């Protein structure tokens, strides 16, 4: 007997430019089969909106997320050492552990690396009692609303991400955790593969990566603002953390993370404040429901995380890697 599929309802989340698309799956039809039947349409919405929310399908387990990844990713990335695995094969992971009381700023996942995911899947296993949304901001809109002279300076100079690692986990993850080895030669080989400059000071490792701030989307040809400067710049940290780091480290050069222009020039606090204002103006969010899934184009959309209360369980899966050398 053939399975009858009731086609889902499709709408925009809101009236803002590049609003995410919401697909309400029908309870009386198999949810995965509905997604498969609408796969081409979902791909079109991803290319236009940059994010698609699948609702009503109860996709709240690692196995279900892997099933969706098989539809929408040609390759799943399993070596993101910033995240904890949620599945035995590492295909599905937990988000970065970050204070429940703090807002995690907008970022395009891992774009401080030479190679980063082109797509991401977020799934809600358990929503928080309050807060805990995963806001998104459109990289095209952010770029178009930033001052032209600011954008040009970032295009010309790019961004240098500087990271200091202790050997073991201390203030952040140590290099043994991030590079998954205790062998310095292996660390150096991985740095070269990721186009990272590296420097050893005893057991402390410093890496420097110069990356673009603006790229052209390979499929849509849309220019996108993808810098993670707001995720690394010291001025963007909360006041308590800034005070603690200033006490722990005598020299700014020893801070765990910071960023500069690619030529080493300082990025001013005022510039970072402008960037944050534009992200905030393009901030869009929804309340997670158990079983929700959001498909995200990682170049077209930056994502964030709101503070929350109560247990919150989100699953993530990254795939379709892109390299800056290919853009």
TrEMBL record:
Coiled coil: none annotated. Residues 34-317 form the TauD/TfdA-like domain. The keyword Lipid metabolism does not apply. The keyword DNA-binding does not apply. Pfam families: TauD (PF02668). GO terms for biological process: antibiotic biosynthetic process. Its cofactor is Fe(2+). Keywords: Antibiotic biosynthesis, Oxidoreductase. One of its GO terms (molecular function) is 2-oxoglutarate-dependent dioxygenase activity. This is TauD/TfdA-like domain-containing protein. It comes from Pseudoalteromonas rubra. The lineage of its organism: Bacteria, Pseudomonadati, Pseudomonadota, Gammaproteobacteria, Alteromonadales.
